[in-house]
Amino acid sequence: MFGSERSVVEEWLSEFKSLPETHIPSYAGSLHLKKSLVPALYRVIQDPNNELLEPVCHQLFELYRSSEDRLRRFTLQFLPELVWVYLRITASRDRQSNGCIEALLLGIYNLEIVDKDGNSRLLSFTIPSLSKPSIYHEPSSLGSMVLTEGALCQHDQIRVLYSGLHPQRETFTAQNRFEVLCFLMLCYNAAVVYMPLSSYQSVCRMSSRLCVCGFPRQQQKLWREPCNRVLLDPEFMVQMLTAVYHAIYNGEWEMGREALEDIVYRAQLELYSQPLLLGNAMKSSLPESAPDDPRGRKVLQVEVTPTVSRISISAITTASIRRHRWKREDTDGMSGGEDSFNINDPDEGFSSGASNSSQPSGTKAGGGGGVGLRGSSLSSSSSSIKKAITARLSRDREKVREREREADRKPELLTDHQPAESRPPQRQQSPPSSINLEAIHLSPIKKHLSFPVGPALVRTGSTSSSKSFDCMTFNLNGGEDEQEEAARGEDKERGISVGGSHRHSTISLQEEHLVRPEEAQELLPAGAPLTKQSRSPSFNMQIISQV
Amino acid sequence: MTTRKSGSRLETEIERCRSEGQWDKIPELVRQLSAKLISNDDLGELLLGECKLQAYLKENPIKQGSSPRGPRLKLVEVRKHLTAALDRGNLKPDYLQEASLLMAKLCYVEAEFREALGHYGRVNLDEMQLAGAPVYRLSMIAEAYATKGLCLEKVPAGSPSLSNKNSGSPSSSRSTTDREQEIITCYEKSGDIALLYLQEAEKALSAGIQNRSPKPGPTTQEQELGYFLETGLQRAHVIHFKNGNLTQGVGRFREILRAVETRTTQNLRMTIARQLAEILLRGMCEQSYWSPLEDPPAVSPLDDPTRQGHIYIKNYSLSRSPRLYSGENLFCPQENTEEALLLLLISESMANRDAVLSRIPEHNNDRIISLQSASVVYDLLTIALGRRGQYEMLSECLERAMKFAFEEFHLWYQLALSLMAAGKSARAVKVLKECIRLKPDDPTIPLLAVKLCIGPLHWLDEGEMFAKMVIDMGEKAAEFRAKGYMAIGLVYSLKATDASLRSSQEEYQRKALGAFQRAQSLSPTDHLAAFYLALQLAVSRQIPEALGYVRQALQLQGDDVHSLHLLALLLSAQKHYHDALNIIEMALSEYPENFNLLYTKVKLEAMCRGPEEALLTCKHMLQIWKSFYNLTNPSDSGRGSSLLDRAIADRRQLNAMTLPDFSDPETGRQQVFLLIWDFLLSVTLNFHSGKTDALKSEVYIGMSKPAEAAACTQEAANLFPTSHNVLYMRGQIAELKGNIEEAKRWYEEALSINPTHVKTMQRLGLILHQLQRYSLSEKVLRDAVQVNSTAHDVWNSLGEVLQAQGNAAAATECFLTALELEASSPILPFTIIPRAL
């Protein structure tokens, strides 16, 4: 460390100490003008034997404690470097020289986990749901989603806690190390836009080094300082990826991409699915070329995009299949009241407003156009849940129909096994009975109910809001019908094979856990306990009400 | 247009054709028109000029990014028509304006930018009525603004621009900033009016169809926007981003997206939604975010600081704006991930809908294009959901992509990883199989599959198959080769634990040891390789060798919890109980809430310091257990909350404890719960028996208060009535009370649930011995030894039975074996340490 750097740091140390409270805002505004200060501070942090390290850490903490955002961000820019130095020294088992950095990291952590009033800070966000209107869309114009459990869960926008309830920490232990570091990186990422370029370089350097040190790839790097492997936590790697992703697009294209490669390399070696998943996505969505200016930002390249779809109209797409199906049904004379259920064909996941408008709606034959669109939007806003359910039910309407035809051919056989199938066809035309029909034969939801130990129920329990589940139950029971109830019971007894054999989804993965009950058992420990503890009473009730 | 006259069918028809862009019908209509009234000649000229210009543009469309090509022969005629319409001055003011706008457009097409601006100067664009105007006129005004913007961009700032706004002021004094401001305003107005036009056009079209014919006619036909409207809609934000003015660009994107979509804007909306999401994910963070309904911050780090002079202020308002999405309880994002997610979900639904499904060669290009655009959306969705830990939802999204992902490795792999991250292990393995088929050279994929197979799934045969794939890759697997050997070693090691026959047990142990040795030699700096080798040696009771490798592992990774635990158990096997306890306490200072360590600590404390201290540790464990479950009570957290995930992950770690006592495939909570009951019970038993030797006290009991233990067990039994552990405990209590017959019944029941529970077998053997049913006792104990050949107390019991039968030689053998095993027996089985990749 050169004498000049030393004096810069010493001056900085003494200046802030003598600063009166009133001067702090102007001081915060002028801090970034001290050009040589930041590199000098990096030098201090990188050298564990520097006697200035302790006062520097102390002062960085003082800055972080101030109410001035700019001062907090000044400290925050060194976080990646501090984390790197801390983890490297921890891996080398040389604990004593690490003390003040540990203290600084824990200090920031303890400040950040509480809000102004000293309550535990809860970070949450809402998962938007396409079935709720937003400032950017109307549910009807996108169509409803398949009524999977997942879709049901998403029916209500769900507020998710992604960080919170962190206890105060006085010391680092191997057990809490990454809990603290993850949270610190989360704070860094929440302010990443305000960080200077030098901090982006530091975060890329930290990520690369943490991921390769002690591994064969380190030999290919310029940085070859011998170092033990540093244990990493998958969630921490996800946070590193988030920071690196930002650096890539905001001036550190080359270093950022190298860091991304190194994180993916390490995630592969550790067989960590989460960072691998994100890293792959980041790699595959990278633009092909570097920004023109190597330090330039490349957040977005925009060009005028043609508004006409580049896809030729004759190509088969989800939308075209739907159009085709409507046409066919129309000519078949199948458009009765039943067709009104077909507004959103959920086989395809989503249906579009565009297709909607070209679809001859059942109620207003030949109406079409924007009117059809408006009409459906009206009905959907009034009861989007019901609509989604109907959509789901209509999904297998085709199959129902197929089976009806089958039933015509060999009625005696099907009467034996599936009384519900042999009901008069005119009953099936009416909406409520079509709901019943669906309830009898295919809903995986019911299957989960009949399978209290199955993984699906577990998943539902841990994920869905019970409200939407209630809705489902209600709708399935909508047309109270003794016969139907009986049939449902029977279906339940015959269980999986019947339902499973009649499902032809595009990917039959869905069935895996239905046809392998023993596997389901083994899957259980993952999510079960929580469910059992928190949900079981209400779920049992629902099961009972189903039976 | 206020002057529209009703009654004239012809005029209505003309208006409709103009609105719908049916230019080929115009000449015929004009012929009919001129037959009616003389004064309509000028209108006829206007219409003919317009339709010929439009026809020309349709045949020779202007491409984005290219300049107009100057005068063309075909356009001479257009100019003639329009000049005629303008010169005579007989036109109504509305039509006169239209003629001027068309003239300006023509000038632009002929690259006469100044002349075009001159025409715009004469028509006051800002004063043209938007309310009540016919649909075609909206389009015309939108195009005019766009064209004006284009012209302004072409004409250098210093030169006179005859804009109506400042037509009198000396143009030379204007700065470039003003000019830029004017250009952007033109484009933004153009875009707003274009959106309004499209909404109105769609409304008119559907209304028209209803009135005229029952059949949906040209509805399905896609309406093309044309160069000018496309430019008007998009050029403003392109300029914002070029100037590094992200704040304004984001604002403009949001304005466009908030307008109610039309069929024509769908593609644009999809692109813009994706681009806005990209900005939110790549260029914004939580602290720099502002909600779409808030004003943007005055100074934003988003904007390029070097271009501070280019701040654009939106300062216009139109008399009529495009319709926005409205209604009650409209969801408005409050956070950047929220907004990004909403936008991506909208893009996803569109991308998903437009994905080409057919695989015929003619559609190959289309298919690739649609796949790429969908793929980008899914990647962004992965980034947005992944950073919030929402893997469950992500896996559901990716699953929707599967219908067009045939043979697309990236999407399959991402689905597999998301399933894995969401804890859907069984399906993840199925998808990973497909990934292996698509990319057989990548060693990571089978290794991921092994990880799941030996972890949550316990599919050892499948795991063996995947691990062999990696090994078969040989040198190609590079750094993953050692991992491959480690994986197969773990499979064999777990198979050995599961095996019921001693011979196959030993065979698997031998194979496992070989694999671990190979892994360790391939990757000497990997602490896991050294650790698993040590663990396997320990299981085979090669204690000194195991100690050597565990020390090596600890040198490589000083605070690895499993290595420390193994070291403690190895020390306990050498009967260095105090050293073992020291190691455990050291490990606990790093992992204060690790149940496995605490369990071992209880046993060691009971051994070294007496049951009182052990009981204290037990209570501590119960407290941790309680706080753990209170903390993760899911009532307040939603679906797939990452906190929840973390809790589940922690629990998985607990489940991974393969205690021989708790190997039944029941829920993790039950395991932990029973674990604690077991401690409590055994410690209570020890406590009351007053004996310090925990191992012996578990067998020989002189307990004074069996009632307490019975109450504990009863509670456990209520919770888990079919657990063999509970039945085993009940048997023990019955024994304490002296009810030998009852105890026997409990033990038999326990064995009917888990026939290989060694502890129960041993107790049953002893009871049968007491009942003097020696041969049956011998049979049960021999079975127990078959299951676990290292259980020294079973050997001991067997020896006693054989002795009672008078078979002294065999009994001696057994006692010797028991002694030998006891000498290397750890305080808890080594297999308590989880084995996972």
Automatic annotation (TrEMBL), chain A:
Protein name listed in UniProt: Hyccin PI4KA lipid kinase complex subunit 2
Q: Which GO terms describe its biological process?
A: phosphatidylinositol phosphate biosynthetic process; protein localization to plasma membrane
* Subcellular localization(s) per the UniProt record: Cell membrane; Cytoplasm, Cytosol
- UniProt lists compositionally biased (Polar residues) regions at 531-547
Identify the stretch annotated as signal peptide in this record: none
**Cellular component, GO, one term:** plasma membrane
Keyword Membrane belongs to the record: yes
Could you tell me the superkingdom of the organism this chain comes from?
Eukaryota
Keyword annotations for this protein, in alphabetical order, are: Cell membrane, Cytoplasm, Membrane
- Identify the stretch(es) annotated as Disordered: 327-433, 480-507, 528-547
Family assignment from sequence similarity: Belongs to the Hyccin family.
UniProtKB/TrEMBL annotation, chain B:
Q: Where is composition skewed (Low complexity) in this entry? A: 158-175
- InterPro entries membership: Endocytosis_PI4K-reg_protein, TPR-like_helical_dom_sf, TPR_2, TPR_rpt, TTC7_N
- State if Repeat is listed as a keyword: yes
What residue spans do the TPR repeats cover? 409-442, 724-757, 792-825
Using the UniProt annotation, give all residue ranges assigned to the region (Disordered).
157-180
What Pfam family does this protein match (any one)? TPR_2
Q: Which biological processes are named by the entry's GO terms? A: phosphatidylinositol phosphate biosynthetic process; protein localization to plasma membrane
Tetratricopeptide repeat protein 7 N-terminal domain: which residues? 2-398
Print the keywords alphabetically: Repeat, TPR repeat
GO CC annotations on file: plasma membrane
Family annotation (SUPFAM superfamilies): TPR-like
Domain of life according to the entry: Eukaryota
Which PANTHER family does this chain map to?
TETRATRICOPEPTIDE REPEAT PROTEIN 7B, TETRATRICOPEPTIDE REPEAT PROTEIN, TPR
Q: What is this protein called?
A: Tetratricopeptide repeat domain 7B
The protein's organism comes out as Oryzias sinensis
> Upper lineage ranks?
Eukaryota, Metazoa, Chordata, Craniata, Vertebrata
